Amino acid sequence: MYKTENRLTLWNIGIAMGALFIGGSFGPLQKLEHAGLLDYTALRSLGIQSYYQGLTIHGVLNALVWTTFFIMGFFIYTMSYSLKRPSSYPKLHWAGTYIMSGGLLLAAVPILLNLATVLFTFYPPMKASPYFYIGLALFVVGSWVHGWGIFLTYRDWRRENPKTTTPLIAMGTVVTMAMWQIATLGVATEVLVLLIPFSLGLTSGTDPQLARTFFWFFGHPVVYFWLLPVYVSWYGMMPKQAGGKLFSDQLARIVFWLFLVLIPTGIHHQYTDPGVPTGWKVVHAFLTFSIFLPSMITAFTVVASLEVGGRARGGKGLFGWVTRLAVERCFLHRPKPLHDFVRLGWYQRYHQRLLQLECGSP
């Protein structure tokens, strides 16, 4: 029933893991350089001309490519299993995967040629090849297309189940993708309006302060984008894995909505920027401190859910429930060799079992 979703998940997570491996390999090199044990000129024979070129590869692949591809694959899979229906428009997801991959390749070429050594933040007036910015724009558009596929699948499910409460995993997925669509408007505007014309020589200059503000409208919420799939797992999967149930479904749903509301917090990355009025810095300070609320709700709800599981299995006393958690359910399905992963063997069996446990609950 979910063959297409499984393939989409495999391709997206496979690309993500490749990006993580390549980008992550530059981490030890940076450490060695800081320790004085490596001179980056020794890497020129491999095409790496400078420390900052390596840092750009590391940042773009790890912060953008690995995370976004992985989350798209994860959400395609969990959305279908949570709603117990295949994706309504799998061609949209394939299109999103192709567009993201094309954008990745287009941006990667100038990075590898040392024509886009502008780091993960690509602040102007540093200028990269226009192909780098065009590739980034395509990458973002591809992620939007994935989001549209998720939204349309949810729309069709809602029409079929007008009186049914949305399963928590599906709700978290939809809210996270909505947050991503809104947050990426900032970086899309920066790239399309400011940086591509600047890199093509169509404008004599650009506005670094405005570009930084657009970037950080995206740059801080991207951290939520990394975090919320983990919350989907903590709230929707881990409680039953631990042998219990979610302590409060309502609190979990509130957390996702709070992260959607608290998107505009990025100016706290610009406290030293003279062009940002003090009043806006104060507003963003309060919004930033407000993140404490969903974080503490999550800490309480997740631990309470684990305690419910431990006590349901006979745990006694103040901390006796910890020793009774069904932690073996988290480790029963261990990966087989790499060839099984390529065939989606262990991955499919593991997640089918896990989602059979979890996605049936709202």
Structure description:
- By secondary structure, the chain is mainly α.
- Helices cover 69% and strands 0% of the residues.
- It is built from 13 helices and no strands.
- The protein has helices at residues 3-34, 51-83, 90-112, 130-160, 168-199, 208-219, 221-236, 238-241, 249-261, 278-290, 292-312, 338-342, 345-358.
- The radius of gyration is 22 Å and the shape is globular.
- The model is unreliable at 330-351 and 353-362 (pLDDT under 50).
Q: TL;DR of this structure?
A:
69% of the residues lie in helices and 0% in strands.
- Taking all residues together, what is the mean pLDDT? 87
What letter string, H or E per element, gives the SSE order?
A: HHHHHHHHHHHHH
Q: Per CATH, what is the topology?
A: Cytochrome C Oxidase, Chain A
Q: Specify the structural class.
A: mainly alpha
Q: Summarize the biggest pleated sheet.
A: none
Q: Which homologous superfamily in CATH is the superfamily?
A: Cytochrome c oxidase-like, subunit I domain
State the helical fraction.
Answer: 55-70%
Unreliable sequence segments: 330-351, 353-362
**Which percent range describes the beta-strand content?**
under 5%
Molecular shape: globular
Summed up, the domain count is 1
> How many separate helices?
13
Cα radius of gyration in angstroms: 22 Å
What's the CATH class, please?
Mainly Alpha
Number of strands: 0
Distance between the termini: 21 Å
Question: Could you name the key traits of this structure?
Answer:
single chain, 362 residues, mainly alpha, Cytochrome C Oxidase, Chain A, 13 helices, 69% helix, 0% strand, globular
